[in-house]
Amino acid sequence: MVNFERIGQFDTWPAEFGRDGTLVAPQQIELLLDAAAQATDLLVISHGWNNDTDEASALYRELLGNLSEIWPSGSQADARKLIVMRVYWPSKRFAEADLIAGGAASGADVAGLIAGQIDELLKDYKDVAGAGAGAGADADADHPDRIKLHALQGLRALLPRLEEDDGAQEDFVRLIRAVLPPSVNDEEEVLQDNFMASDGSNLMKKLSRPFRPRALAGGGVTSVGDGPPIDWNSPGGAASLGNFFRGVFNGAQNLLNLFTYYEMKERAGFVGRFGVVDVLRRIQKRNPSLRLHLCGHSFGGRLVAAVLAFRDPPTDSAQGIRSVMLLQAAFSHNGFAQKYDGSHDGFFRAAFDRQRLNGPIVITYTDRDRAVGLAYPIASRLRQQVASGLGNAEDPYGAIGRNGALAKFAKADVDPAVVKLKPVGDPYPPFQPRRIYNLEGAGFITGHSDVRGPEVVQALKHALDASL
């Protein structure tokens, strides 16, 4: 269990949540409630896909330590008492074959990655491993967590036969389909009949075939076959996808990554929508004038977006969320959009309804972030979409951490004046309430987890100051 920690100038308290959004250690929150009663501002910060609390804590220490360096001191700091709630939730990484040292990954290498990823996922269900042994066993066997446990064990057992056995491939796909969260299409209708009902062995082979790029006039690159185009010269192009669609094990890897993506996506939503929202409700009962701020990295960005969009509308506009910082967030670039397809609003559009938001939304994004769009190439391939660039703003399944919030579907909300993450010391104009600021960060953000530096922290500080 993690505990209270003083980081720089800030008192910080943990809030640990289980995969269903329930508090792991409810007693932690009592101390936070007492501290919040004496504070002026509360920053809720959430990690993204991490394997353990140590990695999340390292992110919090570095980011908050850098924020402390530019925070007011002395009487100014006393006049504005900022405290921090550090969110911890059980998230997992994806398996990425291109991270294997020594060049192209072999089938055995990818099989090892898949086995390791399944083992990590199985750890999350160790608490249900012995369930169902006594009375009520039949009913318990139908519990979603126990179904996932059995499915993951089945996937692990299939690996030795996967490369040569069509039946094993069919079973692998069947098990993946069985455990995809019910919410899989809530945000975007990606996995339709061609995924849910097509022949499993053929589907795996479809997700195993390589892209075949060809040059276009003017230097662009597209692909032939049924896959979407790739700009192999873009940052993270060949490096991230060179091994991504090759061989049966790569098809299995893509399917498991798809499951992991939607499982972590659902968990982040549960933790934000139910767990964090409930804690904030209790905090605001103690201190109604407390200014609330949200900051999330990766799937933590989805977590805090769920807090913003699905919390109770405040009875007083002063109680709306005062700032939101999304650091390479892992959800759709249409998340805040209006009628992005002519009829549907983005999944988090409710953030702009009934005064839930009373401050700016600040988004960092860059095409140098490979990981944030990991599921989107698979989604585009399954739907056989053709876009001018894989995962970019023209791709129907682009991520907000790759492209920012698309202005063409949220034009009234996206501010066009601030378009880049600024160097330290280069001031921003005032961030206005209920406006979205897309900060293209390629000059300072080199990858998905590079969100702790002084340039990012300066933007966070500016967002926090917007509530004054």
Main features:
globular; two-stranded antiparallel ribbon; single chain; eight-stranded mixed β-sheet; 468 residues; Rossmann fold; 38% helix; alpha/beta
Note the topology:
Blueprint lengths: L4 E3 L2 E7 L10 H10 L4 E6 L6 H18 L4 H5 L2 E7 L18 H17 L13 H5 L2 H15 L7 H14 L13 H4 L3 H7 L5 E4 L5 E4 L12 H5 L6 H39 L4 E7 L1 H12 L12 E5 L33 E5 L9 H9 L16 H4 L32 E5 L13 H12 L3
Helix pairs in contact: 1-11, 2-15, 4-6, 4-11, 6-7, 7-9, 7-11, 9-11, 11-12
Q: Please tally the β strands and state the result.
A: 10
| Helix fraction by DSSP (H/I, runs of at least 4) | 25-40%
Largest sheet entry: 8 strands, mixed
Give the strand line-up of the largest sheet: 1-2-4-3-7-8-9-10
Number of helices: 15
Structure description:
The chain has helices at 27-36, 53-70, 75-79, 107-123, 137-141, 144-158, 166-179, 193-196, 200-206, 237-241, 248-286, 299-310, 375-383, 400-403, 454-465; strands at 5-7, 10-16, 41-46, 82-88, 212-215, 221-224, 291-297, 323-327, 361-365, 436-440. The strands form 2 sheets. The protein has an 8-stranded mixed beta sheet, sandwiched between helices. The protein is globular and about 70 Å long. Mean pLDDT is 82; it is low at 98-103, 133-137 and 211-245. The protein is 38% helix and 11% strand. The protein starts with a strand and ends with a helix. Strand 1 and strand 2 form a beta hairpin. By secondary structure, it is of the alpha/beta class. The chain contains 15 helices and 10 strands. It has 2 domains: 5-92 and 265-465, Alpha/Beta hydrolase fold, catalytic domain (Rossmann fold); 97-209 and 249-262, no CATH class. Helix 1 crosses helix 11 and helix 9 (200-206) crosses helix 11 (248-286).
